[in-house]
Amino acid sequence: xxxxxxxxxxxxxxxxxxxxxxxxxxxxxxxxxxxxxxxxxxxxxxxxxxxxxxxxxxxxxxxxxxxxxxxxxxxxxxxxxxxxxxxxxxxxxxxxxxxxxxxxxxxxxxxxxxxxxxxxxxxxxxxxxxxxxxxxxxxxxxxxxxxxxxxxxxxxxxxxxxxxxxxxxxxxxxxxxxxxxxxxxxxxxxxxxxxxxxxxxxxxxxxxxxxxxxxxxxxxxxxxxxxxxxxxxxxxxxxxxxxxxxxxxxxxxxxxxxxxxxxxxxxxxxxxxxxxxxxxxxxxxxxxxxxxxxxxxxxxxxxxxxxxxxxxxxxxxxxxxxxxxxxxxxxxxxxxxxxxxxxxxxxxxxxxxxxxxxxxxxxxxxxxxxxxxxxxxxxxxxxxxxxxxxxxxxxxxxxxxxxxxxxxxxxxxxxxxxxxxxxxxxxxxx
Length: 430
Known about the structure:
Layout: H1 2-6, H2 11-33, H3 38-58, H4 67-94, H5 102-129, H6 134-158, H7 167-189, E1 192-201, E2 204-213, E3 218-225, E4 228-236, H8 243-251, E5 260-264, H9 271-278, E6 283-288, H10 291-300, E7 308-309, E8 313-317, H11 320-325, E9 331-337, H12 352-360, E10 362-373, E11 387-395, E12 398-406, E13 421-427
Parallel strand pairs: 5-6, 5-9, 6-8, 9-10
Antiparallel strand pairs: 1-2, 2-3, 3-4, 7-8, 10-12, 11-12, 11-13
Helix pairs in contact: 2-3, 2-5, 2-6, 2-7, 3-5, 4-5, 4-7, 5-6
């Protein structure tokens, strides 16, 4: 039943778009018939309608901890605006005195066009802001546009045939009520999203979301950069160890002593905190592209990371290519968080020079690990002369791929990584 209900998610934006178009055209019809100056009136009405819709989109429900509740209130406001428009439209049609005079026409422009289109923009923008992906947002925008086209066609066919134009606004109330009901049902069946924090940056946005996955009965916290998942943390329910912590715990030497780790793109990783707690004598260097990631990771994922250097820990923020160029090895373990590279285009975003630098700072028996690589991103090419093993695992119903490489040392196939299953073992000789 839930899967069937989720398929209805395309209906609400379609109905809102149709209602928006109907209200816009009804306002045009009623206001233009009421007085002289067709071109002047048309210009005024269209300007108000477009400005109202744009203003609604701009002031839509913004990221926040109560985004869903605020959107529900905005939807009620939209229904209220169309109710007021209907009442005023009926009064306009019944009494000629209502539509006469500049004040009355100005009020009609506000109630018939401005207010309904503004609240419609708020609802549409709110639905887009709560979308779990960029594709969902684009899909909703397309459906709303299609709904608007249908609304214009319906109004054009019926406007001159109904007893009073305002009766079409009653139809809008029916459409919006149905759309709101369907959206509420669909929202209840889908992943619930609450945005805890957001930062708008020059190259995109960084935000923290709490999602409740109904089917899995999981509460998961995400940090997203420009729509790409940088980190996830199980809030309620049982999950698995993050890939980097799993690799680190497995490869960590048994005896105390200096163990040097490099974490590329680790601004939101819990690995440094784990290393501090379990191996205080180790050294770790973290490279991160965005300061906001470090800040939000500290505030919402308990990473305890801060930009700067201490005796055993260094966190540097900036262009990864530049940061890598300044590295001084050797490191016993290099962890490359590929999710940090996703906004740049994936692992291919790093230049050959950067790849070479990563290998050069790795100790003679060190290991370099790349993860979590999504299945559709493929796998890394085997390094010439290196032993490379590709592992996979299921994580929160999603597949993760981790690639480990070493030049010499203990055979990676002889190591048991809990939950990771080897899917390929390659040794590429020069």
